[in-house]
């Protein structure tokens, strides 16, 4: 991979907080893809290309919790970093109601190239970052930050804040037990059984790390101001929950 | 890590077989450690430093199954690649009846350096190798090859061939169901509950790969000839089991 561009960023690498924050769906950048995969400008702004608002919340939490943040800088339609390379959704040809023409019948060489350019370096960097923390004896929890659409296949979702876990529910339940003023549910609107917890399964579970995937309804974090407010709202809850779970 | 020596090797990288074989405890080389960690020559040959015979069997299986093999080239007393960086056993100060003077009260900088030199590159390479196979749509199973001591804390072990699994027992049970002529047991002399299945938990389980950890009693594979014979004995069993489990 040496010499090639990287499609992720690490911020606050030496942050003193216990959380490591991950935002796999931070970007809707399709810049490297010919013809933007055949999508309209409107589709590129929609949740199929990224998790709108998630990066703003993740950055806010990183600042408030002094947490290291790793986030993608390319759209999940090029490679969904929260899916393994053999999953249909890793390079989705269809997302909810939308066809993704540029992902249809992808040749194996293209699947391999995207895996080598996006998936492997991102997760290798996260693995190295976590391994170094454990070698140094630092308390560590893994928190992934996502957003979800208020309408999905035409159905309105009531939940505002979903907390999802993989094998270990310590941190998720500690967050759930605290008041945020949001309509909050455990393993809703998705759960690990839907295959949405790949990053947690790949990193947190084998290393025995407390972990949670935070899903925020994207109409609540549509502007930078709303994203900052959401980070302000969630940070004390997460700080207390980390203290309980670690 | 660029420019530093690597402490693993990959053989038969383009092997056509479904198995990827891992041998974490292949080597007793303490070459880079000052004073060989304070151990006698006899201790360096003993099972505390490596899994005697395991690499010979792993190479034999790699040849017979046309399987890619990745193996360590440094002793597990420097870093036990089958343990996460925060485990006491990753850089053990005591192994069975033996003190390891050079690992006593290791400074954090030394734990970090060994993690960066041994653990991270080995598992990053294995992760990349498996991810590329999945991107290419290749059927893939993960098999780790180990050996164990006939005497442990003075007690004689009757089992000759142990088959250990992490979350998914498909391949382990498919091997167990076949005749090898060996005294064979499932999850014996260890099991995942003892923390010995880290490589499987880190790579096979999150990627949904069929997997097994093979443990062979080391008095049965003490010579190159015996190692080849063991590979000849096990290869047809594993080939059939892979066909059933994949």
UniProtKB/TrEMBL annotation, chains A, B:
InterPro entries listed in its UniProt record: N-FG_amidohydro, UCP029730
SUPFAM superfamilies the UniProt entry points to: Zn-dependent exopeptidases
Protein name (Swiss-Prot/TrEMBL): N-formylglutamate amidohydrolase
């Amino acid at each position: 991979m040496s010499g090639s561009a990287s499609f992720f960023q690490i911020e606050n690498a030496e942050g003193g907080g216990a959380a490591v924050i991950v935002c796999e769906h931070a970007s809707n950048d399709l810049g490297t893809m010919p013809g933007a995969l055949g999508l309209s400008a409107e589709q590129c702004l929609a949740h199929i290309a990224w998790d709108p608002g998630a990066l703003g919340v993740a950055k806010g939490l990183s600042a408030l919790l002094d947490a290291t943040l790793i986030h993608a800088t390319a759209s999940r339609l090029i490679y969904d970093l929260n899916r393994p390379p053999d999953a249909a959704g890793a390079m989705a040809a269809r997302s909810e109601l939308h066809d993704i023409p540029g992902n249809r019948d992808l040749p194996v060489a293209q699947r391999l190239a995207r895996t080598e350019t996006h998936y492997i370096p991102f997760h290798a960097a996260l693995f190295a970052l976590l391994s170094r923390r454990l070698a140094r004896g630092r308390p560590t929890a893994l928190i992934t930050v996502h957003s979800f659409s208020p309408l999905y296949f035409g159905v309105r979702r009531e939940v505002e804040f979903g907390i999802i876990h993989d094998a270990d529910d310590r941190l998720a339940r500690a967050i759930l037990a605290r008041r945020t003023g949001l309509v909050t549910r455990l393993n809703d609107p998705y759960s690990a059984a839907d295959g949405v917890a790949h990053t947690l399964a790949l990193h947190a579970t084998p290393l025995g790390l407390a972990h949670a995937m935070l899903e925020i309804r994207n109409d609540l974090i549509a502007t930078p101001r709303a994203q900052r407010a959401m980070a302000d709202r969630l940070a004390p809850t997460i700080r207390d929950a980390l203290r309980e779970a670690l």
